[in-house]
Each structure stands twice: as structure tokens, then as C-alpha cells.
Amino acid sequence: MTRRRDAILREMGLAPLWRLRGVAEEPAVEAPPPALPIEAPPARPPEAVRPPVAASAPVRRALPAVAEAPVLPAVAPPPRVAPAADLANLGWDALEARILGCEGCVLCQRRKQAVPGVGDRQADWLFVGEGPGAEEDERGEPFVGQAGRLLDAMLAAIGLQRGHDVYIANAVKCRPPNNRTPEADELAACFPYLRRQIELIQPRLIVALGRPAAQALLNQEVKISAARGKTFRYGDIPVVVTYHPAYLLRNQPDKAKAWEDLCFARKTMRALRDEA
After folding, report:
1. Which has the closest alpha carbon to 227: 272, 195, 258?
2. How many Cα atoms are found within 13 Å in the side-chain-facing hemisphere of 214?
3. For the residues 121-146, what does the mean pLDDT come to?
4. Contact 235, 155 (CB under 8 A)
5. Could you tell me if 126 and 165 are in contact, meaning their C-beta atoms sit under 8 angstroms apart?
6. Cis peptide before 182 (omega within 30 of 0)
7. CATH number 3.40.50.10490 given to 89-275
8. What pLDDT band is residue 7 in, cutting at 50, 70 and 90?
9. Cα 132 to Cα 186: distance, rounded to the nearest angstrom
10. Residue 116, CB-side half-sphere exposure with 13 Å CA sphere
11. How far apart are CA 276 and CA 267, in angstroms?
12. Strand order in 237-242's β-sheet?
């Protein structure tokens, strides 16, 4: 028997064992230790299979809701007060109040104030310009800027002075945007005021300063170069045409022509007074 068998028998209580003499004893072979049972790791419960996520556009955070502004009802613009035929009975104060509140054309929308006129309300001389400029719109008086200073010099050259036997007005009483030339409908809308001023002043002579003023007074197309040195009529009142002072500031050589026109106007006034 092998040692292994002996060991087994001994474990079973069957020893001593008898051996034959002369028989070589086999080397004992130790039995390998019994293999230890290897416990399998506990089985993990199957994970829930997630469905694949489809590719999509980046998710944007929702913005907070903004309350919409209330819709206000449309407000109709105030009606314009157009010049009417009832100016005939207005005196100076009522006429100027009407001019200051006039909304008879689009020029009222951007003005700061209307510019009725200034000077002697019983003057023999009436000078009519085109329309107020930026400084006139600020101060409410015609010809107070650089062109106004030139006009004062022109008056002084023929012995006149602002406010003394001189009245100064404009064909339109509100400043045109960017000092542009007044348009025909603007001149027509504002002319009743000038007409009433002439009726109140009753001047002996009117000097039209520039083409728009001449066209408003004469109701016809006028070229200054062709109208110089001539006498026109507004009703029974003579009209002399010359350049606007603002034009002369840009065209210095024509100042000599304006001086000739002023001398012609002074000669005309002398003749009118001699006739009276």
C-alpha cells in the first residue's frame, strides 16, 4: 500500500497495517491539499438598459416672459389753425397772437416760435425778407443774425435805422428747416398775415429782399437780376426788388449792386414824398 492509502486507512481506523518484507516501499506521495472551493462573486443584477439618446439641437434656457407694452390708442394730431379770411378786422395785437399760434402749414412743426415782425407800425418803409433763420427762431425777431447786421448797415447807408420809420417782416413767419427756401404752398399759407400787416402799416414803399419775398408780393416768377432798377406794384404801393442780405454774405461782389438798388429805392421814396 502506498502511504496515501495508509493515511486513508488510518483515518478510517483500520491500522496497523501489515507490510510484506522485502518489498520496497514506494515513496509516499502526499496528496495535494484539497482545493478550496472558489466562491463565485455574487451575480450583479442586470442594469436597466437605457435607450440611446438621439442627437438634438442644444437646449436653450427659456427666457423669462416679458410683458408686452400696452397698445395705446392712436391720438389724432390737433387740427391746424389755417389763416382765414377773418384777418381783415384784426388789429396788431390780435394779428400777432394769431401768427404766434398759427399751424397753417408744416413749418409750424419744427419752429421754436413764430416771428411776426418788428419796427415802426406807421413806417413809410417796409422791408420784406424771406423767412426767419436760426437766431430769429430763438429770439422771435427778424434779421438779428449776421444777415441782420448787414441789413442794419444797408439801412444806415441810406440814412435809415431799424425801428425808426422802418418796419421789417418776412414772407413766412416760421423758420424753414435748415434755412431752406420756403415752398410755394408755405408762402401762400402765410401770405394773408403779410397782407394784413401791409394794410395796417400802409407804407409808401416796399423793398423786397430776395426772390421768395418778391414772388410772394408780386405773385409771379421773379429773377433778381432782371428785376433790379425797376418799380413794381403791390396794389398802389411801389415795390423795389434787391438781393437778400444772406445772399450778399455769400456773394460779396454783388454788394455793389445792392448799393445801387438802395440808392434807387431812396430816389423812389423822395419822388413819392414830393408827390404827396
Report:
1. 258
2. 23
3. 95
4. no
5. no
6. no
7. no
8. low
9. 13
10. 18
11. 15
12. 118-119, 166-170, 125-129, 205-209, 237-242, 231-234
Distance CA 114, CA 141 (A): 9
Q: Distance (Å, rounded) from C-alpha 2 to C-alpha 20?
A: 12
Q: Specify whether the CB–CB gap between 172 and 190 falls below 8 A.
A: yes
Statement: residue 49 has pLDDT above 50: no
> Rounded to 5 degrees, what are φ and ψ at 166?
-135, 130
227, three cell numbers: 428785376
- Looking at per-residue pLDDT, the higher value among 51 and 248 belongs to 248
| Neighbour count for residue 218 (Cβ, 10 Å) | 16
Residue boundaries of the structural domains of the chain = 89-275
Alpha helices in the chain (DSSP H): 3-12, 92-100, 134-139, 146-157, 184-201, 211-218, 224-227, 245-250, 255-275
Q: What is the mean pLDDT of the chain?
A: 81
Residue 73 in this model has a pLDDT that exceeds 60: no
Nearest alpha carbon to residue 123 among 198, 190, 195: 198
> pLDDT band at residue 86, thresholds of 50, 70 and 90?
confident
Q: Pull the grid cell for residue 108.
A: 409750424
Residue tagged 435748415 (cell numbers) = 178
Cell 414830393 -> residue: 274
pTM: predicted TM-score of the whole model, two decimal places:
0.70
Percent of the chain with pLDDT over 70: 69
Q: Interior CA angle at 83 toward 82 and 87, to 5°? A: 150
Mean pLDDT of 192-219: 97
